[in-house]
Structures are given as C-alpha cells and as structure tokens.
C-alpha cells in the first residue's frame, strides 16, 4: 500500500500531471537510480535526489547547490512537488524539507506508480 501519513499537502495524479509544464513548480523525484531508469515525469523543471539525501542536499550553500544541480537553489517559498514510486518516501522527503523551512512542498500522494 502506498501513500503517506503526513499532514502536509498531498496532490492527486490529476493535480500533478496538470502542473508538469508549469515553470512555477520544481519536481523532485526521490527514487533511486534503478527506479528512475524505468521512467520519470517529463516536467519543465526536474531534479532527482534520493529521499535519504534530501536534507543534506538542501542544507548545501547556494553555490554548492548550483554547482551540483546546474540550477539555483530553490527559495524557502518555492513551489516544490516531491514524488517517489508510491508516496511513502516522498512524504518522508516532504517532512525533511518542511523541517528545513520550505513552505510550499507537496507530495504526490500515490506516486509514479499511479500513472
């Protein structure tokens, strides 16, 4: 069973797919490389950071983040959609980002498997 027990905002598959080409949203796939090789969202703005590395990566300085990911580090009020295969790891990554002060982080409640 997928999903998350987080009280933070969750998005449905329809909501997620409607935002794929909106540059306002950064999509972060928190699955591992082998899962990513099986397919990913074709989003306008996309990063892959495994859920176990989210906190460390978002603690990087602006300069280190830009060097690692070739994009500016998102601001604390950036709109970020996190996803994994079924929603659980996405929820954990969402919780970690909220603890770092990110205010607009959404989790795809049923993940990539719901496509």
From TrEMBL:
**Cited Pfam families:** Rhodanese
Q: What is this protein called?
A: Oidioi.mRNA.OKI2018_I69.PAR.g9170.t1.cds
Q: Where is the Rhodanese domain?
A: 21-112
Name the coiled-coil region(s).
none
Q: Which SMART domains match?
A: RHOD
InterPro entries in the cross-refs: Rhodanese-like_dom, Rhodanese-like_dom_sf
